[in-house]
Write a structure and sequence with these properties.
Radius of gyration: 20 Å
CATH topology: Growth Hormone, Chain: A
Largest sheet: none
Number of strands: 0
Helix content: over 70%
Strand content: under 5%
Number of domains: 1
Structural class: mainly alpha
CATH architecture: Up-down Bundle
Length: about 425
């Protein structure tokens, strides 16, 4: 294992992180462009009650697409898995544009599911950043790749109005405009990863740790067994809970904010600005969150994220659709709280897992996270349709309290074992 700290290995790690960061910028533009208008497109095509299907379809798509992607990674490496994810995402975006053109939600909806391939690529990239990372820098390296998404994620939504104009000029619905840009940036990210992610970090890691790739290929870890591995390790369970519940409440509130604004007659520019602020909160402080995760510990950062999330629900939940400043502050804090739970949770999960099971167990964790996020996105549309945006924030707060109980319970259990 000492070879992982050799200068040549760390040189490869720096190149890996730089490549992944570049791809994250491009992928962030694509994912965020769709996030800014997805709920509005779904509401326009199928009605407000179905507006939550946009976020939920993309999130659950990312979760299920992670299964073949991580299976491919386990046998051929990170690079080919990421390329596959981007290819699936491009196909999905083209279906969304076609469905919008023909006004057929039956085409657009599965396209939103497949567009989750782009999200799957951005999520799996954070794990790829840890393959060759030193333990003391694992949170930092993961957070750098997550942070790179900031640039693209802020650019994407702010281009919504401009891309809407472009779509109108080529006889497409204005809400399909941002997806035109998504196709281009996903393709560029695919090329970057395919050309520059060499040598593959997972291959190098396997060589260093002595993992037999041929054995992994012959006996892939089943999904059910992968989840059993996670739940058999208390620390990994906490990491998964942090990722899954943080994702769920973030998707629920974020996906319904454009609808909340739209009901108050906010312009597409205002919607884009607030979603940009939210996504900036998700990623802009990532390096600091990563450093804190390494220096202060995984669980303290998760608890900090919980407190920030609760503050965001109070601020956003009490704001009307006309109170743009309050909503921007609330959504920024929502993103920042998510960053803490995602980075610290992912780091805790990864380091708690056996090396030879990581690709498949990481994929299983992202599947669980995606199902939670997708269910929350779908549920959020029903809550806002039948109740209100404020009620949605109250329910989100209740789920964050559940996460608090899980973290505290694990700490108490570990303390009892240490004193026994």
């Amino acid at each position: 294992m000492s070879d992982v700290f050799a200068p040549e290995i760390q040189g490869i790690q720096k190149r890996v992180v730089a490549t992944l960061a570049g791809a994250q910028i491009l992928g962030g533009i694509g994912v965020a462009s769709g996030a800014a208008v997805g709920a509005l497109l779904a509401a326009d095509m199928a009605g407000q009650a179905f507006s939550g299907l946009s976020a939920s379809s993309s999130v659950i798509g990312a979760a299920f697409i992670a299964i073949p992607v991580t299976r491919l990674m386990a046998t051929t490496g990170r690079r080919q898995g990421l390329v596959l994810a981007y290819i699936i995402g491009i196909i999905g975006v083209l279906m969304i544009i076609l469905g919008a053109k023909l006004d057929l939600f039956a085409i657009t909806l599965p396209g939103m599911f497949l567009m989750g391939g782009g999200t799957a690529a951005t999520l799996q990239s954070r794990y790829a950043a840890t393959d060759l990372a030193q333990p003391r820098n694992r949170g930092r390296d993961l957070s750098i790749v997550v942070w790179a998404t900031t640039i693209g994620s802020v650019i994407g939504p702010n281009m919504a109005e401009t891309m809407g104009d472009v779509a109108a000029r080529v006889d497409l619905p204005r809400l399909a405009g941002p997806y035109l840009m998504t196709v281009v940036v996903f393709a560029l990210a695919l090329v970057l990863v395919n050309v520059m992610l060499r040598p593959d970090p997972l291959h190098v890691s396997n060589e260093i740790t002595g993992v037999n790739k041929l054995t992994t290929k012959a006996q892939p870890l089943p999904l059910k067994q992968a989840m059993s591995v996670i739940f058999s390790i208390p620390a990994a369970t906490v990491g998964l809970a942090s990722m899954a519940l943080g994702q769920a409440v973030m998707v629920a509130v974020m996906s319904m904010t454009p609808v909340h604004l739209h009901n108050a007659d906010a312009s597409l520019g205002v919607v884009g600005a607030i979603i940009s602020g939210h996504i900036a909160g998700m990623y802009i402080a990532s390096p600091l969150v990563g450093i804190a995760t390494d220096k202060l510990g995984r669980r303290p950062v998760i608890m900090t994220g919980i407190l920030i999330l609760l503050a965001s629900f109070v601020i956003a939940g009490a704001a009307s659709g006309h109170e743009h400043t309050r909503l921007m502050i609330g959504l920024f804090l929502l993103g920042l709280g998510w960053s803490c739970t995602m980075i610290a949770g992912s780091t805790l999960l990864t380091e708690s897992l056996p090396v030879d099971t990581r690709p498949r167990t990481q994929g299983a964790a992202d599947l669980a996270m995606g199902i939670c996020g997708a269910s929350a996105g779908l549920f959020s549309g029903l809550v806002v349709g039948l109740g209100s945006y404020a009620i949605l924030n109250i329910i989100a707060g209740a789920f964050v309290i559940i996460l608090t109980v899980i973290v505290v319970r694990e700490r108490l259990m570990v303390a009892r074992m240490e004193t026994a």
